[in-house]
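Hey Z.,

So I finally got round to the flavin mononucleotide thing we talked about over coffee. Here's the setup:
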Amino acid sequence: MDKLQGFEFWRTTLKEARFVVAPMVDQSELAWRLLSRRHGAQLCYTPMLHAQVFVRDANYRRENLYNEVCEEDRPLIVQFCANDPEVFLQASLLAQDYCDAIDLNLGCPQMIAKRGHYGVFLQDEWELLEKMVRLANEKLSVPITCKIRVFKEVEKTVRYAQMLEKAGCQLLTVHGRTKDQKGAMTGIANWEHIKAVRKAVNIPVFANGNIQHLSDVERCIQETGVHGVMSAEGNLHNPALFEGRSPPVWEMAEEYLEVVKQYPPCTLSYVRAHLFKLWHHTLQIHQDLREDLAKVKTLEGLADVSKQLRLRCQIAKGKDVEEKKGGLPFPHWICQPYIRPAPKDLVANGNSKDSEVKKTVCQKRALEDSDGTADTLSKNKQKKRSRNPNKNFCPEQKPKYIKCEQCGNPKGNKCVFNLCRGCCKKKAFKEVADCPSQYTHTHKLTSVSACCTNECCVVTKRPNTPEFV
Ligand SMILES: Cc1cc2nc3c(=O)[nH]c(=O)nc-3n(C[C@H](O)[C@H](O)[C@H](O)COP(=O)(O)O)c2cc1C
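And the result:
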């Protein structure tokens, strides 16, 4: 049977989904998707996966997709970042049986995407994108979709969307922010651009940006004419957003922790990050518990801190105590959006906050650009240091790894070809393998599973290598 396309795909496979949970690295994992679906989400995306790693590493495939497969988690779109048509295709072929469509990330504006040459940094490479989408559309059994950011110019954004449609993209998500609208400069998404794209293409369009309440969903659909809306931050702060409810935080936190237990394993740092987002406002009052939440090392520990937060809120609620602090919303214990200060409020000319924001942005950039050589540590590094105070972030004192002669990744421990695990494996398959470490292992082996974890030893599984038979 021919695969469904465009509107037919949206109507039949996606069941006319209008409420969509965004792809979110470390945050749109299975447990969170299931929680969001229970509360109104009709379609979810996986976090962005790296196409190249997905092709190369079976563990990565298992941990990030295959082990997460479950019936309740459909419809599901798997998102990849990629910059090579063949690699993107190979990754998508390996993922297509576990999802309803494959999405290409053309929106990530982070420094890591700049270095890896993917996400929004492909925004100007139309020829390459055309090839990637065309090949995927031709060869995959599921539709290919794209998630883009807008250009400053409406007209260029429209031509960009039309190019992707022509290449074979079957559904387009338009994030109404430009490449530079990130971090402190995030600001408001532009729905005018989204509306223009919607009018100009003949495939379903989802709008992304500024969706914090159910009323935003309705307004966005009305103003832009899109077929669905996607929420990221709004969903993280209130997973019941699409139900039009703002439940007490503990209700969502406890239900989420239950789902995590029901669908193991879930990485602890994801759970911690979700609780930080859910309890965002309350944690500004109960700073002691903020520290506890950062420190505990088990799921039970996290659940316990969450319970203590609930008890404190319930006591305050019972006594009708108004715990107001700074600009915190009240009551702080209901799920509600975190409103970022608008960049114009922060960087208006002559505003005293101006230099502060620019300083933060510049510091961050310096840190990103210099790979951690700046004086200030990023939030992530600070977190790492709080867990391991002896950790050294000085690049000169980092252990130096020997690099793979072919690709520059760290060399495998035992490989005598001076290759990384992936390249060694390829070599082993292409040529008759004669890595002495493999011989040694093979002779000692009683079973394949006793083999070293170095993928170069995969060669021992090949039935017709002399050392195996
Ligand atoms: C924690 C987090 C992780 C994200 N990871 C991804 C990702 O993996 N792929 C992607 O295309 N966008 C990612 N984004 C961007 C969102 O999908 C979305 O485009 C952006 O946050 C704007 O939507 P919002 O205004 O509803 O937050 C991420 C956003 C957040 C907050």
